[in-house]
Amino acid sequence: MKTLLCLLIATGVGAALQYAGVPHGLLLGSILTSALIASNLHFAPTVPLGLGYVQVVLGIATGLMFKAWDSHTAAALLPSLGFLFVCLAVQITVAGFWLFRVSGWNLKDSLLAVYPGALAAVFDLLESERASGKVIVVHLVRLLSITVLVSFLIPAQTNLVIAEDSPLLTGTVVIVLSLIALCIGIGRVLLRIGVPAPFMLTAIVATGVYVKMGFLPDFQMPPWSVNFATVILGTLIGSKFKDISLADLVRHGRSGVMSVSLMVLIAAAFAVLASRVLGSDPLSLWLAYMPGAIETIAIVAFSGGLNVVFILTHHLVRMVMLHFAPAVLVQARRWRESEL
């Protein structure tokens, strides 16, 4: 009941900010509301299937855009992916060095704090490596900072149409339900081996296959599903502040803001360089080179009318490259501990 009340309040505040013209007010209002409730009442709303719902909805909506995907588009991504890998290496090195040398952190905490990955995988690593709690503060600051930054710098398009108000045919409903079941089934398998954002990854790939096979020629995600995903995502982000005291947030938050600022500025520099070399849109490249927050980036890119497929392809490649290694590390460590 408390969770439902929190979701309703978050929806009301977010809708009010959206109506008032605040960029991405639904997302920011949900974050603000749930953060205040979590920190003051020491209550974190629990939405057991919330993150999975967000990933499936955004993944399917992204996969539907693969109608225009071809080999030429895929080939055009390869040079940009090269810039991405170099950008990630520079981000980790510079931000990690700053925490290690300037802030005086130990090497393990410094590297885990600037690890540009999803929170779920990071928290799994933190538990396995027994890292300091200040690392969690830095990752929360990174998630919140990127969310607020891109939300205000990239205004939503009020005339953006996500779906037509047309009735769904029975055959289409059956196909969509089979797609959702496939995404959940494969996503749960990937989740067990430690792959981050597994439902989004599966939904994007599976929907792209469905689209290319001609199963979903006219289907689009209904607007309410994306709006509901936005509220849930904002509520989940804000609820992370339940166990973070104000003193810890102030003490370690400054280090987090500085490290995140360095990573975001490096992403901007590489975006400008890549745009000049490749002739691509620098704003899309900047979002593509962001160190994490894939769900937030997806929502902002959708509502901002940007090239979502181009942006999220970079994030998916980043996640596969950076998260499979930690996933294997965590599973190997757990296996070794179970043997002992």
What's the multimeric state? single chain
Secondary structure class reads mainly alpha
Radius of gyration: 20 Å
Strand content range: under 5%
Q: Averaging pLDDT over every residue, what do you get?
A: 79
Low-confidence stretches: 159-165
Query: How many domain units?
Result: 1
Number of extended strands: 0
Total count of helical runs of at least 4 residues: 14
What is the succession of H and E elements?
HHHHHHHHHHHHHH
Give the end-to-end Cα distance, rounded to a whole number of Å.
43 Å
The largest sheet, given as strand count, sense and whether it forms a barrel, is:
none
Pfam family, one: AbrB
Keywords: Membrane, Transmembrane, Transmembrane helix
Protein name: AbrB family transcriptional regulator
Transmembrane segments: 25-43, 50-69, 81-100, 135-156, 168-191, 198-215, 221-239, 260-279, 285-312
Any overview of this molecule?
With 340 residues, this protein is mainly alpha-helical. The chain has one domain. Helix content is 76%, strand content 0%. It has helices spanning 2-19, 25-41, 50-63, 71-102, 107-113, 119-129, 134-153, 170-192, 198-212, 223-239, 246-278, 282-288, 294-304, 308-339. Helix 2 (25-41) packs parallel to helix 10 and helix 5 runs parallel beside helix 7 (134-153). The radius of gyration is 20 Å and the shape is globular. Mean pLDDT is 79; it is low at 159-165.
